Structures are given as structure tokens and as C-alpha cells.
Amino acid sequence: MEKFVKITSTAVPLPIEDIDTDQIIPARFLKATTRDGFGDNLFRDWRYDNQNNPKSDFILNNPNFSGQVLVAGKNFGCGSSREHAAWAIADYGFKVVISSFFADIFKGNALNNGLLPVQVTESFLATVFEHIFADKNTQLEVDLEAQTVTIAGTGISEKFDINQYKKTCLINGYDDIDYLLNLREKIEAYEKTSKYLNLVSQDQEVEA
Amino acid sequence: MTSDKKTLFQKIWDAHVVTSIEEGPDVLYIDKHLIHEVTSPQAFAGLEKRGIGVFRPQNVLATADHNVPTKDQHLPIAEPLSRFQVDKLTENCKKFGIELYGLGHPFQGIVHVIGPELGVTLPGMTIVCGDSHTSTHGAFGTIAFGIGTSEVEQVMATQCLMQSKPKTMRINIEGELANGVLSKDIILYIISKISMGGATGYFVEYAGSAIRSLSMEARMTICNMSIEMGARGGLIAPDDITFDYIKGREFAPKGEKFEEAVAYWRTLFTDEGATFDVEYTYDAADITPMITYGTNPGMGIKITEHIPTVADLKEESGKASFEKSLAYMGFNAGDTLIDKPVNYVFIGSCTNSRIEDLRLVADFVKGKHKAPNVNAMIVPGSKQVENQAKAEGLDVILKEAGFELREPGCSACLGMNEDKVPKGEYCVSTSNRNFEGRQGPGARTMLVSPLTAAATAITGKITDVRELLNA
Question: Which residues are in the Aconitase/3-isopropylmalate dehydratase large subunit alpha/beta/alpha domain (chain B) (predicted)?
Fold first, then answer.
């Protein structure tokens, strides 16, 4: 996994609440068997009409706004568990999503792909939107080490929470599997005590 | 608060913790890992890249469901990308030694339908799957939840998952349900109260006399939609209804093992005096047939109510999203939905495609015929459900009523295959999500119970099923 420490970037504002993963990447694009190329279909049905022409009123088609930070309304990433949503956002070029609330599975998927979900307060989110809409060149500084997000040049800043284990993983570019593979002995010891494995053990012997 | 009192959730969770990471998540052992064609290929590729295999292939079970046609399943899949993805699953299962119930297998079906009906899903287990509706299995008193593909790879590699312990919520439904009100109405009612994100960060236990009275199929419908209010999962304490359902199923423990299992399963309940982070109680008598009017499952009303207005919103910040949603649906604030013409009815999905759902629908439509404007599709949850329906003659009743009985799969719930609702059309659906474009680009979905769907198919317009039941 790519390391994440700190970025400073302009941002794309998407002030819509409850953005679900079907909007981020519609199901008909989930037929791929690799992780690549999902960025082309990010927000497909908001971004293009049914003739595949870009919709001029959608923010990703607005040349004024670009950057590595996506700023979205609350409850971002709700719905389906499809990790393709995180892949699409990262593949498009975003490194951070800022919202006042994230759905659980999306948040986990993002962290597993080096895409940082930054949860801020409602009022801070409103302030960020105001600054971006007032000046498209507004820079946001996201510092994972310090756990802060700052509107550059204004002194307006907020601290954000992150699980310390996940923070360490992101800063060092580790993933969970590297960690778990080293626990093999503990896992095998657990299996000897498992009620479930004991209950189904007979069946498994018969099957074998 | 006394710490020796545990909730059902805590009992199962604690029994599966392999180790805990300081200031980090728990390492949770996963008893059964269900996989399907859409969210697994990248995980298998990840294992190959690391040069490792599947740690416990016997604890993994695969089926093809999301991306399969529901017609002519005996023929090769026509759509090349879908065929490639399904073939990839077959190839991966063979390579990694995983049992697969693919197309043509008598056990094939929607992953959350086949687990329970095969006796794979048992109380006290941990179950994960790369699908958010894995919460369905919670109906058996199981910690079951959806995961992303990186986590699918994690479980394949180690049979474990890193998870932070969620908070706990209990939702009690007390009293008796009125005639014509199904468990689907209970869960749509709950989500309309709690909102789409209201249970995010929580694991929910459903309890109360109305829940206890439900069949396993009906309980599964409730747990299935836990994710639609953001919950990590939902579960119900197992009881005699659960044990009777499990007994004799294909992979359920048999004989002495079953008795031993039941003795353990009887310890799986929330101790009196155990506390939840949040608790809600609702009166079953207040629940009526429900319907959604917007583009998330929290936007539900009683079928006879009017669509809310901006003035009814709790938060000002939600105004733009609310208006966007109504514009997409082509509705106005304050409208009533009753008598609105509907051309598409979909009965299926992991929420409502079990044999009990098909029986309810067949019983209701027997001797009636769908309205001429309606395209009514019923997609059974599994090959076993399909065969059972045929054995009971339900296929004949449904056909005579003008309903098309298809072959099993996820189908028009998410429109990955050919089963899509055309742009701008309304679809009354027993599935779980009414997101924009969920059933096809531009499709407008209204979520309902199987009875409300059947009644709407018969009249060709949105109908309060109680009026037809009482007629």
C-alpha cells in the first residue's frame, strides 16, 4: 500500500448528503476482475448523460474545480460494501475524502487502499465548502501525523480522529494481511478452542 | 453496571477474539466466509501476488449470484464480461480448493439465501461476505456482516479479520402485527424512524414479542436491511423457531452433535441487566404497510401517508438532498402515492425471495390476474426455492396470474445482469435499495413488502394491500 503522510491540495466540493456507493460506481461497472480503471466511471450517472456526454452541471465536469481532496456531504459511502467505490475515487486521483460522517464499510475500504477518510464536524465542513466555493484555489492541508485539516492561509483548522493502528499502517504503507500472517500460531491455537469448529468437525471429516 | 452481564452480541464477539491489538482493532476469527463472483477476483489475485494460498478453504463457500442471467441458465452466459467473471470464480475455486455452487448446481442461489437453507448458517457463528447484506444471517443469532475486497483477501489468507468492536443498539418491537403487515414493513418502519445513517457504528439486536413471533424467513428480512440504517449488522437471539428451522438441513449438525449444539445455542441470549449503548422500542400496532418515496431506504412512509415536505425535515442541511431525491423520483412534497400507476413489479433479492415470500405472493394472487400495464417478475432466491415452488405448484398459480417466474440470482435488485428497469419507469420492488439508478440507469424504485408488491401488480397502481385482503 502507498504511504500517506501529508498533502496540500485544492479540493472538489460535492455538498450532497447520503452519497451511496451505487452513485460512486454503479453496479454495471463491477464486472471487472482487476482493481484498475474504475476512475473512468466514478460518479458515472451524475457525470455523463445516457449518450455518454459529460453533464456540464456536475462538479467533476467543472474545469474550475480539481485537486486531490474530495469534500462531500454527510454519510458519505453508504450502501453496498463494494470496495470498487474506494478504488474508483483513488483511481480518479483523490487521496483524501472529507465529510462530516462516513459509512462504516466505506471507511474501512478507503483505509485499506491508502485513501484517507477525514471526518470533521458539521460546522467545519460548512466552512470548508464556503471557502472552496468562494475561491476555487483554496488549498487544504491534510496532515495525518498531526491529525489536522487546515484551510491554508486562514489559520482555520480542525483535528480529526483516526484509529492509531490504522494511522501507523497508512504512514508506513503496511496492510492488515502483513500483520495477520505473523499471527499464525495464535490463530491455530484459537482453532483448537473453537466451539463452532468442534460442532461441525464430524461433518467435515465425513466430507473429506 | 455489572460487567458480567453480556449482550448476545458481546457473547459471540468475545468467543471469537483471537487477540487484541493495543489501541487498535480485535483480531476476530471467522467461522464461515461466503464468496461470490463480483467481490472476490481481486482478492484471489492479491493472494497470488503474495504467493500464498487460502488458509482454510473448507471454511469458505462460493456461489455465483450477482452477475448471472435469470433465464436459460443451462446455456453459456451470453454477456461476455459477466461470463468471464463467473468463469473466473470457477477457475479460482478450483485452484484454491473452495466448494462452489455455481450455475446448474442444485444448491446455487443468492449467497444469503443458500447459507441458511443449507444449514451452513448456525447460531453463535461469525460469518462474513463481500456483500453488505451479509447481515441477513444475523437472524440465527450470528455475527454476520459485509466486508470489502481487501478484507475478503484478509480472511482468505488468515481466516481472521481486523475489526474494531462496534457499539450496541437494541430495537424492541412489542405487540401484534395487523393483518397485511409483514416483517418487511417492520424494517422499513424502523429505518424510516432511525434514518439511513442512524445506526452507523452500531450492531443491532432486534427483540420484543413481535420479533419473537416471526418465522426465520421473516427474521432474515429484518436482519438483511440492518445495513440500510448504517448498522454493521443485526441479530436476533436464537430460539425454538430457529432450532426447528435448522434441524435436518443439509450441513447442520446431526444426531448427538445437534443436541450438543442446541444446548450451546440456548446460552446465546442477552443477559437480563446487560446494557446497550442505545435502545429503542416501538409498538407493532403502529406499523402498517410501508413504502419508500425517495432515493434512500430511510425515506419511507406508511402507504396511506403523504410525502413529507421540506418543513418536516429535522436538519436544514438535508434540504438539497431531499429536493434532489424528489426530483429524481418525479414526486412532489405532500403527494400521496396511493393509486399512482406502476408498470414494473419486482419480487426477489436477498431480502424477499425465500419460499415463504413466494407462498405469500402465490396465495394472494391465486385466481387473480396482473393488470395489463404491469411487467411482474418473480426471481427465486435459490435453485432449492425454485424447485420447492414448482413442487408446490406455485409456478402454475403465478403463471396463471401473469407473473414471470425466473431462475435464481440477485437480478433486478442491482441490475448487474439484463434484468433492469427502464429509465424513468417506476418499479415497486421487494428488494433493499431505492438508490438512484440501482435497478438500471434512471429507474425509480419504491421498496415494499411482497404483499404490497403483489397487490400493486394486480391493480397496476400503488395499492394498500389491506383493502384487498379485507374485501
Answer: 10-460
